[in-house]
Structure prediction request, 1023 residues.
Amino acid sequence: MAEIILRDIEKYFGAVYVIRKLNLTIKHREFVVLLGPSGCGKTTTLRAVAGLEDVDSGDILIDGKPVQQLEAGDRDIAFVFQLFALYPHLTAYENIAFPLRATSESKASVEAKVRAVAKSLQIEHLLGKRPSALAGGDMQRVAIGRALVRRPKAMLMDEPMGALDAKLREEMRTELKRLHLENESTTVYVTHDQVEAMSLADRIAIMNEGVLQQVGTPDDVYHRPANLFVAQFVGSPVMNIAAANVKADGSRSLLALGKGAAPFEFPKSLIRHLSDAKANDLTVGIRPEGVLVSQTETAGYVPVTAHLIEPLGAYDIVDLKVGAQLVRARTASGYVSKVGARVWARLDPAQTHFFDTRTTDSLRIRLVDGAH
Amino acid sequence: MAGVLDTSPAARAVTRGWSDLTIRNVFIIPTILFLIIFNIFPLIYSLGYSFTDFRASVNEPANFVGLQNFRELLTDERIWNNFWVTAKYVIVSVGGQMTVGFGLALLLNRAMPAKGLITTLLLLPMMMSAAVVGLFWRLLYDPSWGPLNYALGLGDLAWLSNADVALYAVAITDIWMWAPFVMLLSLAGLSAVPQHLYEAAAIDRASAWYTFSRITLPLVTPLLLIALIFRTMEAFKTFDIAYIMSTQPTTELISIKLYKFAFQEWQTGKSCALAYIVLIMVLAITNIYVKYLNKVKER
Amino acid sequence: MAHIRLDNVTKKFGLHAAVDGLTLDIADGEFFVLLGPTGAGKTTTLRLIAGLEKPDDGKIEIADQDVHQWSASERDVALVFQYYSLYPRYTVRQNLAFPLKSNARNCSQAEIDERIARAAKTLRIGHLLERKTDRLSGGEMQRVSIGRAIVREPRAFLMDEPLSNLDAKLRESLRAELKELQMKLKSTFLFVTHDQIEAMSMGDKVGILNEGKIVQVGTPYEIYNKPKNIFVASFVGSPSINLMPAELANGHVTALSGKLKIVAPRSKTNGAVTIGIRSEDITVGPKEQVAAHIHDVENHGVEKIVTLRVDDQFFKATAPSSLELKIDGTVKFSFNPDKLHFFDAASGASRA
Prediction:
């Protein structure tokens, strides 16, 4: 049982304001990912929950009890470090046994618990080895084993896959998620990798410069980003962002990216939504999969040229030149034949996001694709 | 394109002065010559003398006497006594240095004001000349007006002329002088222990003592062993401090005996033999340490 | 002007051959990516070409000249490292000027200024020129490192995982920038990476290296769609290609202990094979063929990656993000028969 509540957390490093009035509740058994670029305060937040860092103001509550006065060891949480922090002179077995032996558990009980954890992580054959003899993935399994063996109230993980290579990371993701399903311990996981966040989290908390930007399910943050930062941080390739202006044109409205570029067609309702939202300057955002590309001239599509093609195997990412603006589109593999080719493109209104340029906040306008 | 100046990189290379190899040789060869003339040659030459009855003070050719020098030395009870004195001295002095030095390192291994200044001050004894240190401590130890007896209220304890105490008095001086060396190495070892291991231990609910004995100590052991090797070797051949501070037979270390053979009795051949015996002993001891060190490092 | 050729090059460290009889041909003006896992010999290959290591055997040619006797500086290639090796405490301008100030190069101050201005414009670091390098972000530092390579106007650019220390977002944008840069400069790029996305998205050609040997060289399209063996197939593509044992008999493939039966699209010899299928070639939905247990669902926003289980066989499929999928539930799937890869069960070589 563990619910973690962060209330108005503030933290300074010298004059640097690293956590700014952070409020976040992590529910019992929930898997929450703190996501953000390096230096956004996510690791500091995690370390504050663990008791490895003091906060300057605010409350941290674990199961309703304030824990600021407790030492790290007394908070009954486990921590998995980025570089695993395995004790280099101890074997895998001794590493996993360490937290039990440190509190003088009986030898038989230590042995039973270590074996049980090793079995669930499938590292029984590695128990006699020292960390230097282990591969990256196995080091991490041992580190997780050391965290799990105590059955802590909560697991805190600081970029545990940062040191692993891409292929291994994919495997470990699935493993970690299954582990969470089986152990159901409350987990807070810090990463700068949005793919990890999207695939692991029940909820994602996105931070930037010490400020919490948005908390929501992976679907929320991907499909309904609260501001430009979240919109651009989540999703790969990154969402296209451009200043835009919209004008009415009969039964439709026309949205132009910059001056002189051929405008894209949008439903007429956009004009009304925009005037309701009272935005001054408008920025539109659209993910590459929302940019529809056609090889032939099609009604509602504007002519563009292919500037750069990145073949990624399953699909291609094509940079299209729309006037002076580059717009990235996701197409079927090999769909656009070569750089310089002329194709036609359209922005899917249902996948277009609208932001206030000045505040960078989302205007929360959701269009249905009415044009076609 | 005949006639055009070849400016290709390969052409440029030919005109460029010394190659890397030449430069390397220019630096290395004088050093090697120096080593041969002043180190390796005398070493071999003295090995030759150790099998003779050569006396540097007498203008007579050396006679080959085989292993006689070695036989005499190894059966001489007084020599064995010198070795016994040396052993006691090494154990007390090195043991003290390790304890005090590591202790100081533990105290200093934390953020504290004026840490740099304190460390520098603690290192001062090590930088002084042994002769100066010896003379200075002789004053400190003086039974009638030395500040040490006054401060400790020991009356007129004659540190350096009391046969039972003299050796330990010298050892204390040596500890004072060389504990900083152990401290320096220990500090390097302690600061190399990654901070995240201590954080992991804190999360794992390890007590301070448990953290020290299970994490700190094993991880600095290799550097402590290196300090131990250096200090044992040095202590084994201590001459200056003991020679300056005391004339008691109980402080006659093997190197003092060696000095007397060589330059007071002029038994050059015999002293060469004794020097070789000492060399072999030191090598044997350090070899044991190094073996153990390698074993520790393998883990 | 740098056509780079390696002919049967071997480099040993002790008994271990880091590069083992490697033959490689990189055309002038080509963006060539060497892709392989850690320890495959990629970096050693790069260092051999740069002249930082000497081969034990074989020949290295740059612009049709044997460069065996040439030192690193004489080869006139630029190397960009994983760790941006900028001189700290110097400004960006001083860092960029550094390689031009060497005596061997003999550049006038006017020319130095001009070259720096041009490089700064190409890399969009003009506003950083007077800044000290320790005040730069990771992406800016790596741009300056590349800038230092550009000002020299070398015959070829060798890059050793220059993006791997940057965070994901930055990596993505620098990928496109580097590709554009190469198209603009039209010079030879040899880029080493273990990240298959970098290789696919930037390379004109990709060479896959394993245990010091070239396994396959081809365009990204060829590498992805016509892998020579299981190693290439599973190294390229994310998520990894699904591999499973199957039986070929009478024009049919049977897999998943008989639960899956597909018409073999081409004439194949009968017997045991390993089949490979990429996640996007497996369709998931209520109307499909075979039922599977849902082991894991990863939401990637644009799509979902589901890990399915049939008996003891796990495999991953791509599903539209709108599809409802619950972990530990059941769903039906089918394989696209046209996209099956066939590999020899014993050797792993492609049977296409």
Observations:
- Chain C has a mean pLDDT of 90.
- The radius of gyration of chain C is 24 Å.
- The domain at 242-344 of chain C is CATH 2.40.50.140 (OB fold (Dihydrolipoamide Acetyltransferase, E2P)).
- Chain C is about 25% helix and 35% strand.
